[in-house]
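Supplementary Note 3. Input sequence used for the single-chain structure prediction.
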Amino acid sequence: MTKLKKIGVLTSGGDAPGMNACIRAVVRTGLHHGLEVIGIRAGYNGLIHDDFISFQSQDVSNIIQRGGTILKTARSKEFMSAEGRKQAFKNIQKHELDGLIVIGGNGTFTGANIFIREFDFPIMGAPGTIDNDLFGTDNTIGYDTALNTVMEAVDKIRDTADSHNRLFFIEVMGRDAGFIALRSGIAGGAEDILIPETVTYIDELVEILEKGFLRNKKSGIIIVAEGDDAGGAFEVAAKVKEKYDHFDTRVTVLGHIQRGGSPSSADRILASALGYAAVNGLVNGRRGEMVGVVNKEITYTPFEKAIKHNKKIRTDLLDMARILSS
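The predicted structure, written as discrete structure tokens, is reproduced below.
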């Protein structure tokens, strides 16, 4: 096993609250092991364009509470090409890196997996995505904070929905997975929750609303994941309005507000644990794996398994949510 002397760390893809806490953990764990730690700005683009900085312990002071990422982030089209990855490896050799920690989601780990196959270079991953759609960890960095952000927004919107007797369709992030929609919908007492993992039938949604109307319900909240098969919140609202116009309907798209903000205590703790474990994994000769926490235990999952979108969502909770909101 080659002894590590210098490692790099980058954040890639969409930003997520807690990424800074993970960077902090990577830097200070690396320094504890006597390693030199290099930060790469703007994700894989930084690898290609030689945007490297040296980290000392003081450089990551006072960042654990900050949202976003001090290293910046991007989705790199250049890294998708063989030429781009070849240039990235040249810069890795130039700076004499012995390993890399990548913090991100599906796209980040897909790129890392290809890079390992092409150049036999040690990379470990920490799951940083608000979507929580990676197999091999109960929660991803940023998911808990995003949930709380959505819940607080839903609470505020419900106040105005009740005041004006309105039905609100609230669109949340989740192009391929409904984890945010499902959990925030339960926490916010939504009348119904529409997610990509299940088929949405507008007639069934209308029936739920009609039953509520008969019980003298004057307002309501429908949570719509952006990737729902019936469309986003605007499309669903229009379809419902065609069939059922008793409610004064409004649409709110929460958008990128879900990505920002100071990370919750849960995300700070998770990010710290994952950054620490990712460096320890590299030091102990691991590579090509995402570190996660399952049942409160640190786990290591191969990239190809983590990115297959086979993390199961508990669709039975939809029935519970409907019963509790009725």
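The chain has a mean pLDDT of 93. Residues 144-259 form a domain with the Rossmann fold fold (CATH 3.40.50.460).
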